[in-house]
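Can you please make up a protein's amino acid sequence together with its fold in token form to help me picture the idea?
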Amino acid sequence: MKNDKKVFILIEAVLAAIVLAMAIFLLSEKSEGDMDKVSVIVQNSGDNQWAAFIYGLKMAAADQKVELLVVNTETMLTVEEQKGLIESEIENGADAVIVQPVPGPDTQEMLKRVRNRIPVMQAGYAAAKERDASVLPTTEPDHYAMGRALAEELLNDYNGNLDGKTIGILMESGDSEASKKRKQGFKDSIKDAGAKIRWTAGRTYEEDGDASLEDQPEADLVVALDDNSLTTAGECSAANNLHGAIVYGIGNSTEAAYYLDAGYVECLVVPDEFNVGYQSLTEIAESLGNRLRRSRDITVSYTVIRSDTLFSKENQEILFTMSQ
């Protein structure tokens, strides 16, 4: 009798444990209405340069079971406009935000205040920051290394000798840390090669219009440090408006790939924007799953592509993510 009672108690305990485990499992499974919501705010979100980035976000959102919203932005934002969009997303239920920060001295303080309410991840080419000035996590390529890689490709084409060559540098935003690091990496690598930097054209996000490439003095080489600058240079080259200058640049859109394939761009350094998106969302989703966990900085890779390697097997995945 005692043995029967012990068996009965043991069975009850096992059943109770099974019921408890099932309850925990069911509670941990999020329904669609209970999904964490992550909003993404980047400059001019409809631009083709974001195709791979947004594709990476979508893939990670599916894997992490997170509701994703890429905020529609048609123009370059100011700090106040970006702050307003973030506030609006929080009011609409965003549990975290991924942001391409607007370059400027006030942005980091604004984002730190946001981070006191919800998790924040910085992403995009303008996201680079001075490490001592901020503790906000960032997903980005190594901008300085990309600038060096671009310079090394140029130097290889000229056997390391650029004596008498003039260079023009074009960049979309002259006041972002990313642009500064790319430019510095390039300049450090060519400083002993004999070339002369004839001009640098860039603009801040607060300015209207683009830096006019056609109005710059003639140069033997044009170096474009971001996708918009690269496509601008490629378009000018195609229209014979660069006075025969050879274009090298950093880009990640289908337009950039087209200008490379058509011969209007000599060399392309492509940051892995798919992984900027995928890793940004994955990291912030894990932080939402564990509120005591702080998101970390993530550095993604880049690839050097020439026209003869554009359609190689190794680069097919890059082209695929660009076209999504």
Residues 23-32, 205-210 have pLDDT under 50 and may be disordered.
